[in-house]
Design brief:
heterodimer, A: alpha+beta, seven-stranded mixed beta sheet, three-stranded antiparallel beta sheet, B: mainly alpha, MetI-like fold, 13 helices, 2 strands, globular
Chain lengths: 424, 278
């Protein structure tokens, strides 16, 4: 009895070992297929969109598997910087367009192989500002999607104020007029509903610097991006106009309902300026009836600010991994991928022909952003976060310290010039 | 060995980083004391350092006295003491992020903000709180004190319970008054708790970060750096501005301050202990 049981155990053990070996062998053959890693930072819609793209890619390329790694935003740069030089980490990675210089200097990226990525074709196919990703005639990274700004308006609040709910302001003068009519205050003068939600920690800094300065006849930066040029009559006028929304027109307050997004989505602000990536949040808000329109113009001048994340191939990818990585990068920048990305994430296709189809241009929500892209400029940042802070502080010094606008603008331009001078 | 690697290597590395320029992705470049020179000439750094000490010097006495008073009277409550103590302790279990957002709403202008609504009801004018360069730091500090109170109360109460009742009874028989008992019996015997809380609260206040990050617009420690503590400045230098060298130099300053303060307080504790015995 005991013998036979020991015998059967032995048999089972042998079978088990054989099975194990068989699995190992199977694993080995499967490992012959190429596995590449793709990294991006953790952001729900982007992760979902990329998972779907990877699934399609693997179906079309059964010999390649893509491992999708997401990293919290705060650790994103650290992790990549530590992993790639050690031969670990991503073969294809996502980065902010403003980081490209740093990444190339650090030898983290390699140029996109010419056989799959034709420079002239990219120049023609993508929005012109994507040429910022070209260094010495070679592209190092490509975006799937791009973002721009637009004016969001709350239809219900427009109706309540006796305005045409389908006629958003087209000019800055209209904007002030509509904001006045939609602002509500209580008997003590406390703000109940803002005509426009202003938030310098949001997109307002880009609106002032890249849009308003331009519309008031100035230039925020010199053509080569090395000099701050908004310390001009136009720059002062642009900032003054923004300050007047709070101080003179009293149609808004900074920090109202903590931030601009909250103020607008809770139906307590008639307008706000934000990016296409906000559509998801506003669409998810029950009872919020809103529209999107192009940023208001001034004396016929329209301006917009674009920004984007790109995908590049890291220095780690070599041989068949490089081939697989190139194939994958080409796949996630195809028109089909961009279309899918727009529907999932709300960011706009980076290819002009795709963005400029009638279906997209006339889309009630994507349309205004796409029309704005045709004249948008992507600021050539040295350090987005410091440059943003300079602009935030400029507005706060005027509002809280009562510094004259001209002095505050002059001081800010000196401060920001220091940042630009730090460019290698 | 393991302890040395895990514990000390990061510290040594931070010191080395503080004399380098490094943007996280490139090679490190030795720059000598350039980061420290830049720090000395940076008005924002001095403002941040001043804020940090303001958090400490305002927050420490207020929070400890308040915690002691609450613990002292809570200790005398006979019914429902456990429940009350648990209620005081609750904020300690809440994450700072959630707390910061709730307080951010409390400080809103009227009619949304709770505090301004109270002020209005009492006939006072509305206050800007977080949108003021002078009121913002105390406003943040009140939230920080509230958050730390529960833990301090529990420690004080444990200390109070450890004092034998017979001492009080003996003192009462000898005719000692309230203040005399407090000064001669309660406070000296509570010294270990006091010193423990002095050290932990000081370190907590000097390292204040998540509350400020979440309660101020854009996590900037504004308006105009009015609420920005050293740790937030380090975080921004390192992870928003990718300036690891400058961040490490500030970390070294924070380390020196924390070390000096801990040594000072431990010395005070020892001095008091010996005095007690003598």
């Amino acid at each position: 009895m005991s013998n036979s049981s020991r015998g059967s155990k032995l048999v089972r053990g042998v079978i088990g070992a054989m099975l194990g070996l068989g699995l190992l062998a199977g694993g080995a053959t499967r490992a012959a297929a190429v596995e590449i890693e793709y990294w991006q930072y953790t952001f729900k819609q982007r992760v979902e969109a990329m998972d779907a793209l990877i699934k399609d890619f693997q179906k079309a390329n059964p010999d390649i598997t893509v491992k999708h790694v997401t990293v919290p935003y705060d650790n994103y740069r650290t992790r990549i910087a530590a992993a790639v030089p050690a031969g670990e980490g991503p073969d294809v990675t996502q980065l902010f367009y403003g980081w490209l210089g740093d990444y190339i200097d650090a030898k983290l990226l390699q140029p996109l192989p010419a056989d799959l990525f034709d420079t002239a074709a990219i120049d023609r196919g993508f929005f012109p500002f994507v040429q910022g990703m070209k260094v010495k005639g070679q592209y190092y990274a490509l975006p799937t999607a791009v973002r721009s700004l637009a004016l969001f308006w709350n239809r219900k609040l427009f109706r309540d104020a006796g305005l045409d709910a389908d006629k958003p302001p087209a000019t800055l003068a209209d904007l002030v007029d509509v904001a006045r009519k939609t602002t509500k205050r209580d008997a003590a003068g406390n703000l109940l509903t803002a005509g426009i939600a202003l938030d310098t920690a949001g997109q307002d800094v880009q609106w002032i610097r890249q849009v308003l300065v331009n519309q008031f006849g100035g230039m925020p930066y010199s053509a080569d991006g090395r000099k701050v040029t908004y310390n001009s009559a136009a720059g002062v006028a642009a900032v003054q106009w923004y300050i007047d929304l709070i101080g003179k027109e009293k149609v808004s307050e900074l920090g109202f309902l903590t931030d601009g997004v909250t103020a607008f989505r809770s139906g307590r602000a008639a307008m706000t300026i934000d990016g296409s990536f906000r559509l998801g949040a506003f669409d998810g808000q029950k009872g919020l009836d809103y529209g999107v329109t192009e940023l208001p113009g001034r004396e016929g001048v329209r301006s917009n600010f674009a920004s984007y994340w790109v995908n590049g191939i890291t220095a780690k990818a070599k041989g068949e991994k490089l081939a697989a990585a190139s194939k994958f990068l080409a796949f996630i920048t195809t028109p089909a991928a961009m279309q899918m990305w727009m529907e999932t994430v709300g960011e706009l296709p980076a290819r002009v022909d795709l963005a400029q189809t009638d279906a997209v241009r006339n889309h009630p929500k994507y349309g205004p952003f796409v029309r704005g892209l045709s004249y948008a400029v992507a600021t050539d940042f040295v350090d987005e976060s410091i440059q943003r802070k300079v602009m935030m502080d400029l507005i706060d010094t005027v509002l809280l310290k009562k510094t004259p606008v001209a002095d505050a603008v002059a001081a800010a331009s000196v401060e920001e010039q220091k940042v630009l001078d730090g460019r290698k | 060995m393991f302890f040395a690697v895990v514990r000390f290597w990061p510290a040594v590395d931070a010191m080395m980083l503080s004399v380098s320029r490094w943007n996280l992705v490139g090679p490190r470049q030795f720059v000598g004391l350039a980061n420290y020179e830049r720090m000395a000439g940076d008005p924002v750094f001095w403002q941040v350092l001043g804020n940090t000490f303001e958090y400490l010097l305002l927050g420490l006495p207020v929070s400890l006295v308040l915690a002691f008073v609450i613990a002292f009277y809570l200790d005398r409550v006979e019914y429902g003491q456990g429940l009350l103590r648990a209620l005081y302790f609750l904020p300690h279990l809440t994450t700072a992020t959630a707390m910061a957002w709730v307080w951010r709403w409390f400080y809103q202008p009227p009619p949304v903000g709770l505090f301004n609504a109270w002020l209005g009801a009492l006939g006072f004018g509305a206050q800007p709180f977080l949108r003021s360069t002078t009121q913002a730091l105390p406003a943040v500090l009140v939230a920080a004190i509230w958050a730390a109170l529960g833990f301090q109360v529990v420690i004080f109460m444990a200390g109070l319970k450890a004092i034998p009742r017979s001492y009080y009874e003996a003192a009462a028989i000898d005719g000692a008054g309230f203040w005399q008992i407090l000064r001669e019996i309660t406070l000296p015997l509570l010294a270990p708790s006091v010193v423990f809380l002095l050290i932990t609260t000081s370190i907590g206040l000097l390292r204040i970060f998540d509350l400020v990050y979440n309660i101020t617009a854009g996590g900037e420690g504004g308006p105009l750096n009015a609420t920005k503590p050293l740790v937030l400045s380090i975080y921004q230098s390192a992870f928003a501005r990718m300036d690891m060298g400058y961040a490490s130099a500030q970390t070294v300053v924070l380390f020196v301050i924390l070390l000096a303060l801990s040594l000072l307080q431990m010395r005070l504790l020892r001095g008091r202990d010996e005095g007690g015995r003598g």
